[in-house]
Every structure is written in structure tokens, then in C-alpha cells.
Specification:
CATH topology of one domain: Rossmann fold
Strand order of the largest sheet: 1-2-12-7-8-11
Largest sheet: 6 strands, mixed
Distance between the termini: 39 Å
Structural class: alpha/beta
Number of helices: 19
Bound molecules: pyridoxal-5'-phosphate
CATH class of one domain: Alpha Beta
Strand content: 5-15%
Length: 469
């Protein structure tokens, strides 16, 4: 990460990674002044979310002319793409908790917010270069659908998305498989999510094949996704605290992508008091923030829960935070992630000054929840407010409620709509989730999906056959 040659935003966008193959971070985070934030508030009020997005993304972008970037933001964030003109509205529950609604995009999960921007940026940049890109990915549900809806109709982009056959919720399957476009190729693999991911890795390891078929990725370590996610932390803060006072955020966390963007927003000067990290039973990150020990799990130690998008064994963006925590000491980070973790399966920062200052310097606190906690949170928010929350948001609500004392507004990021997780909603409150009008009839439409065994040769043949045609 540290000491890289300078490279443009658009190169990182298309590569997803820094030139050395590591996770990219800018040399330093932008620190806009009070006048910039005041102007940002005016932009949000007058020009809406897209105008604020343009202001924030300008801080991270060095090679896209301002007017072009403004137009791309306008195409990503408008009320034809999102169900609400506010894009990220906020609301308050009876007990004082705030929700930042990140799920009003085309696939009803927060991943739309970054992915829609990525789709615009890809089309723009590929057009400038006269190039094309074939995205290859694996999904357990939300990432794949967000990517497909964002890339649909974008010139020069095709998507191959691997899913574990029969293992996504019926709604998630309907979302992806009813897309009818030759540039969207759904692949149902006879296996679990890890099998899908292994296949993707195997294909990417064949560098000749990767180059020949212009393969790329849109996973959560993509730097442009993180940059786009910073925007909604700025917007939610501005909406909840019109006077500019401090807020706290509680973020349901899997790969540490969403909350990494919150961390970056905080480093940029957004007055975030606490950053509350919420996990489910797969609590590898909660354990770190409580003990200072980061111990990645074996895949057979990772349990399938009712908040499946947070079922992780290690967190792919976590290295970015550790880099900041350790004062951007790249050598130490390489030692931890390149040597200690692979050889011992864990690293231990519990005795260090950096870990001791984690709450004070970076705001982090954490907690985890169980299936029973999620059911109780869904039921209690439904009973007190008549609002249905999804199981991931319920993890956030559970953990946030333990930390409500001090009068600073606490904002839980709503990461998906309940319609995606009907079985758990029924279990919690005995009725089906509402289906937003934009999804009416979805589950009845014809499906487009190719079945595949766990066979990298067959996957390569599928890609080659599709691209060469
Ligand atoms: C992806 C996802 C998460 C986890 O987000 P990270 O960025 O991986 O921490 C949480 N909730 C939902 C609904 C998701 O789709």
C-alpha cells in the first residue's frame, strides 16, 4: 500500500487494485475545510444527492473532467434509478435511533449505491479507451444482483456472475435470473459460495486467459466502490444533524467495506463520534475490536446465518483499516497480513498503544448478535414503529441499542429491504414483508441461468464461447 508510484483514479477503477496488487488507498485522505462542508450542505439541499456525490468524488478523482463527473453522478443518482428522489433518506424510530435508508436502489441493498456509480464510471472510462470489460464475480446474493443491474445496458461491459445453485433466497434468485440481456450471464454452480469464489480465483490465476478475455472484478475491495460509499455517510450526517453537530453510525458488517467508507468519512472530518461495528454470529471482527486479536476462521467454522451477507471468515477490506491504525506503517502491515496471518492464522495487537487508542482515535466500538436477537429486533421495530427492517439491519439495531446513552444521534445504516429475506421476516413477525411496487410480479417472470459443475474448464469454455461470438 505505501510508497506506490502515483497512478490515476481511472487506472485503479479498472484494475480494482493498486499497481503492486495490494489494496489501494490514497497517500492521504482529503481534509476539506468548513467552507467546503457548508458548500456541500448547500449542494445537497439545492442539487440533491447527485450534486453532493460530485463534490465528494471530486476529492478522490484526478483524471475525469468536472463536468463529465457531474453528468455521471446525475445518471447514477436520480429517481429513475432509485425509488426516492432523496436517494438516501433518513428516518427516526420511536426509541430515538435513526435509520439511513441505503436500500432504495434497483436491487434493494446498499450495494446499489456504489455499484450504480461504478457502472457509469466503467462505461465512461472504457469509452475513452475504446476498450471492453468482462466482469467475472461470485455472489452469495446481494453483490451479484447489484452488479448486474448497474452494468445492464452499459456499453462495453458484460457480466458473468457465479451463484451457488439453490442457495440464495427466492427473491434474490428472481432478481438476477429474470434479467434478459445477452450481456448478463448468470451461472448457477453446483456447490456453495466458496466453490464459486474458488472457480473465479482459478480463472483469474490464468493471466493469459484473463488478459485475452479482458476479465475484471467488482468485489468489495474495489477502491472506487469505497469512494462512492463515503458520499452517503456525508449525506446522512448532513440530514440528521442540520446544525453540523456530531453523530454516531452503527454498521452491519461483513467484509468491512461499508464501515471502511465510514472510517474514511470520519478521517475526512465528518464529526462521527462512535463507529459501531455490528456482526452476526460470525464475529471475527467483533472479536478483534474487543480483544485486539484478529483470528480468521476456517470456512467450516463459518456458520450460515439469517443475515447471510455478513457470513464471512475473513474481512477483505480490513487490511485498509489496520494500515491506518498502525500509522500507515506498510512494512508492519505486510508482516501481519503477509506472514503472521498465513503462518499462524491470527495476529495479536492487544498489547499495543495503537489498539489501546482505537476507541479514542478512531471511534470504533463493536458488538455481535444472534438469530434470536435479530428476530427480536425485527419484531420490536415492527411493533413500535410499524417499520419492517431486514435481518442485516436488525443486527445493526441490536448492537446500536446497547450504546444509546449519550445523546449523540445514532444512525443505523439500513443495508437491505426485508423483501429479500422473506423467511426470516415471517419467523419474526408472522407475516410476509411488503413488496415494493417496483418488484411486483418479479418472481413470475422467465429465468435465464446456465447450470455448471465445479469445473473451471467448463467455466472458461462458457466465457470464451460468449465473448468470441
Ligand atoms: C454486503 C452486505 C453487508 C456487508 O457489507 P460489507 O461492506 O461487506 O461489510 C451487510 N448487509 C447486506 C444486506 C449486504 O448486502
Amino acid at each position: 500500500m505505501a510508497g506506490e508510484p502515483p497512478v490515476g483514479f481511472s487506472d485503479i477503477l479498472l484494475e480494482g487494485l493498486a499497481p503492486d496488487g495490494g489494496l489501494y488507498l490514497p497517500d492521504s485522505y482529503p481534509r476539506p475545510d468548513a467552507a467546503w462542508f457548508a458548500e456541500g450542505r448547500r449542494l445537497l439541499a439545492d442539487g440533491g444527492y447527485a450534486a453532493l456525490a460530485h463534490a465528494v468524488l471530486s476529492l478522490f478523482t484526478d483524471d475525469i473532467p468536472g463536468d463529465d463527473l457531474r453528468a455521471l453522478c446525475g445518471r447514477a443518482y436520480n429517481d429513475r434509478v432509485f425509488a426516492t428522489p432523496d436517494i438516501v433518506p433518513v428516518s427516526r424510530l420511536r426509541d430515538g435511533l435513526w435509520l439511513a435508508h441505503l436500500s432504495d436502489g434497483p436491487t434493494a441493498a446498499f450495494k446499489d449505491l456504489a455499484m450504480q456509480m461504478l457502472g457509469q464510471l466503467f462505461e465512461y472510462e472504457l469509452g475513452r479507451r475504446g476498450a471492453s470489460l468482462n466482469i467475472l464475480g461470485a455472489t452469495s446474493g446481494d453483490t451479484g444482483s447489484a452488479a448486474e443491474y448497474a452494468m445492464l445496458g452499459r456499453r462495453g461491459v458484460r457480466v458473468f456472475m457465479l451463484t451457488p445453485a439453490g442457495r440464495m433466497t427466492p427473491f434474490q434468485q428472481a432478481q438476477m435470473f429474470t434479467l434478459d440481456d445477452p450481456a448478463i450471464v448468470n451461472v448457477a454452480v453446483d456447490g456453495v459460495f466458496d466453490d464459486c469464489q474458488d472457480l473465479v480465483k482459478e480463472v483469474f490465476c490464468d493471466l493469459d486467459f484473463k488478459a485475452r478475455y479482458h476479465l475484471g472484478a467488482v468485489n468489495s475491495i474495489n477502491w472506487a466502490r469505497l469512494a462512492a460509499q463515503v458520499v452517503y455517510y456525508v449525506a446522512a450526517w448532513m440530514r440528521v444533524a442540520p446544525d453540523g453537530g456530531p453523530v454516531s453510525f452503527c454498521v452491519p458488517t461483513g467484509n468491512f467495506g461499508n464501515i471502511c467508507a465510514a472510517h474514511i468519512a470520519r478521517e475526512m472530518g465528518v464529526p462521527i463520534d462512535r463507529l459501531v461495528l455490528a456482526t452476526n454470529e460470525n464475529n471475527v471482527l467483533d472479536e478483534f475490536f474487543r480483544t485486539g486479536i484478529y483470528r480468521v476462521r476456517d470456512t467450516d467454522e463459518t456458520v450460515a446465518t439469517s443475515s447471510p451477507s455478513m457470513d464471512i471468515s475473513k474481512a477483505s477490506n480490513f487490511e485498509r483499516f489496520i494500515f491506518d491504525l498502525l500509522g500507515r506503517d506498510g512494512a508492519r502491515v505486510r508482516e501481519l497480513f503477509g506472514e503472521e496471518l498465513p503462518s499462524r492464522g491470527f495476529f495479536d495487537l492487544s498489547g499495543t498503544d495503537e489498539f489501546a487508542s482505537i476507541r479514542q482515535r478512531f471511534g470504533f466500538v463493536s458488538g455481535s448478535s444472534t438469530h434470536a436477537d435479530r428476530l427480536a429486533a425485527i419484531a420490536s421495530v415492527w411493533e413500535s414503529d410499524g417499520v419492517m427492517i431486514d435481518p442485516h439491519t436488525a443486527d445493526g439495531v441490536t448492537v446500536a441499542r446497547r450504546d444509546l446513552a449519550d445523546g449523540v444521534p445514532m444512525i443505523v445504516t439500513e443495508t437491505a429491504l426485508p423483501v429479500k429475506f422473506e423467511a426470516t421476516i415471517r419467523e419474526a413477525i408472522g407475516r410476509a414483508p411488503e413488496t415494493p411496487p417496483r418488484f411486483a410480479g418479479l418472481e413470475g417472470r422467465p429465468r435465464h441461468v446456465v447450470s455448471l459443475g465445479r469445473d473451471v474448464g467448463a467455466l472458461k469454455a462458457l466465457i470464451a464461447g460468449t465473448v468470441d461470438n
